[in-house]
Write a structure and sequence with these properties.
alpha+beta; 6 strands; single chain; 58% helix; globular; 21 helices; 523 residues; six-stranded mixed beta sheet; 2 domains
Length: 523
């Protein structure tokens, strides 16, 4: 590593005269600026995906009360982020940038908080610089800093709780315990999985005799907040979490390090890239644990490791006993103590230039993947916006056609968002339409492209960044049941049917007669 790189990691400009040295905070300023550029400069680049679009379509309403009822009956997250989103939407609207910028701001602010956490655990500024840099460029943390959901705020609040905990553990004053109670409460109000990070913090405070008495009021406050959330948890009742249990636990566990290394869709890059990204982490951590970690550095390592373990292993243990909510994205806040742990070990005092080289390689790998995500549609959220524009721009009949769209479940909310006037066709109902669009991801069924019913002909096949669509037109409107339309899904994924205004008819009183396509298949 060059002298300049080593100086940057150590926080000093060793080549400049004392009178012209840069201020000591300049590395944090540069890293925070980089974090802001990575998050804000491409904030509107990607389309809304299902969860993001679901919020403005089904949760956010003009009235705050209606919005809170939407949170209680359609979501699985505490209310804090939705309160902020509701206020944000009243001022800036519900566009992608408008709903995402609070997450980008939270992700940017997380960087100096991570710096402060590292400074609290280690006297070496190199550890703080490495921690802040890894948080700034990590693909997963950048991803959720650009999502109109609670995860970016969750990461920030969990990081603040960790910082306040460490300060209270070091000096258990009333003010520091109050700060821990407040930050921990905000984390709980942002995401239920904050509990798993708070449990080891509480255990540390109770285990330290000098902290125990001062910690009791703060712990009591956290318990009160948790109990206050209990009715909301019961009301939400696990809405929309069925997919977690349908995803093999072994695959979800494999996805946790994959997400951390190369982002939400990073598995598309292949195991070779993942191995290349993991190599400097494994070598750096192995080198630090093998021979260079000093006795004075062991307690900070154990602290960070215990918080990371609580955030990851407690949900895993609960999953083993049947309370399975272990989605990899719910563990995103645990990646802060994981990152701190890596920096503490890799940049142990006696690691020297080897540790700096490992840290630089890890950061460079993360940055390369983050930039690649911005340049590669296959690594991004599904481009439902472009697909909707394509569907809206091909009107061949007089005016806009009355249409039904058969889509994978994760496409219903984005299409409702980008094509206003569409709504879900409820089971047992039928629709009279002159256009049927079938959209989804590969792999496709062998029947994809076949006419969905007599009188419909294939008009166009679409491929929008991996989203496949077939458009069928009929010269006259035709009536089809919701059941028969669902059978036209072009992928094995669970289908949804959305229709334009005026297409839905009354609930059917008699079973719909089965239609057959020109190829003799049921539709």
């Amino acid at each position: 590593m060059s002298t300049l790189s080593a100086a940057a990691l150590s926080g000093r400009d060793e080549t400049a005269p004392a009178a012209t040295r840069l201020p000591g905070w300049w590395p944090l300023a540069v890293i925070t600026l980089l974090a802001a550029l990575l998050r804000f400069s491409t904030l509107g680049l990607q389309s809304f995906w299902y969860d993001e679009a679901f919020t403005p379509v089904h949760v956010l309403h003009a009235g705050l009360g209606a919005t809170l009822r939407g949170v209680a009956h359609t979501e699985n997250t505490p209310p804090l982020w939705y309160l902020l989103a509701w206020a944000d939407a009243r001022v800036f609207g519900t566009g992608a940038i408008a709903l995402r910028w609070p997450s980008a701001l939270a992700g940017t602010v997380t960087v100096p908080v991570a710096w402060a956490i590292a400074r609290q655990l280690s006297p070496r500024r190199a550890v703080a610089i490495a921690t802040a840099a890894l948080v700034a460029v990590n693909p997963l943390l950048v991803w959720y800093s650009q999502e109109a959901r609670a995860y970016g705020l969750f990461v920030l609040m969990a990081a603040l709780a960790m910082l306040c905990f460490l300060r209270a553990l070091h000096e258990p004053t009333r003010g520091r315990m109050a700060a821990f109670a407040l930050s921990g409460s905000l984390a709980l109000l942002t995401h239920y999985f904050a509990l798993f990070l708070l449990i080891p913090m509480i255990a540390w405070l109770l285990g330290e005799r000098r902290c125990r008495r001062a910690a009791l009021p703060a712990i009591a406050a956290l318990v009160v907040v948790g109990l206050a959330l209990a009715p909301l948890i019961v009301s939400q009742g696990g809405h929309g979490t069925q997919w977690i249990g349908q995803w093999a636990l072994s695959s979800r566990l494999q996805a946790v390090p994959q997400y951390y290394l190369d982002g939400y869709y990073g598995a598309s890059l292949g195991h070779g890239i993942e191995l290349l990204l993991a190599l400097p982490i494994v070598l750096g951590v192995g080198y630090g644990l093998w021979r260079v970690l000093e006795a004075s550095e062991e307690r900070p390592v154990v602290l960070a490791a215990s918080l990371a373990a609580g955030g990851i292993l407690i949900p895993l243990l609960l999953a083993a006993f049947g309370a399975d909510y272990l989605a990899p994205r719910n563990l995103v806040a645990a990646m802060i103590p994981v990152t701190v742990l890596i920096a503490l070990i890799v940049l142990a005092r006696r690691a020297g230039r080897a540790g700096m080289a490992f840290a630089a390689l890890i950061a460079a790998g993360f940055l390369a993947i983050t930039i690649d995500i911005d340049a590669s549609p296959r690594l991004q959220r599904g481009n439902w916006h472009a697909l909707a524009l394509t569907l809206a721009g091909h009107h061949t009949l007089a005016g806009a056609p009355v249409r039904a769209i058969v889509t994978v479940e994760l496409g219903s909310a984005p299409l409702e968002y980008y094509l206003p006037g569409l709504h879900l066709l409820e089971p047992g109902r039928s629709a009279t339409v002159s256009e049927i669009d079938e959209v989804g991801y590969a792999p496709l069924r062998s029947s994809a492209g076949s006419p969905p019913a007599p009188g419909f002909r294939l008009f166009a096949r679409l491929d929008v960044d991996g989203l496949i669509g077939y458009r069928f037109l009929s010269s006259v409107p035709r009536t089809l049941s919701e059941v028969s339309l669902r059978r036209q899904a072009i992928t094995p994924a669970h289908p949804e049917v959305i229709v334009s205004a005026g297409a839905a008819l009354a609930r059917q009183l008699l079973p719909q007669r089965t239609l057959r396509s020109s190829r003799g298949k049921k539709v």
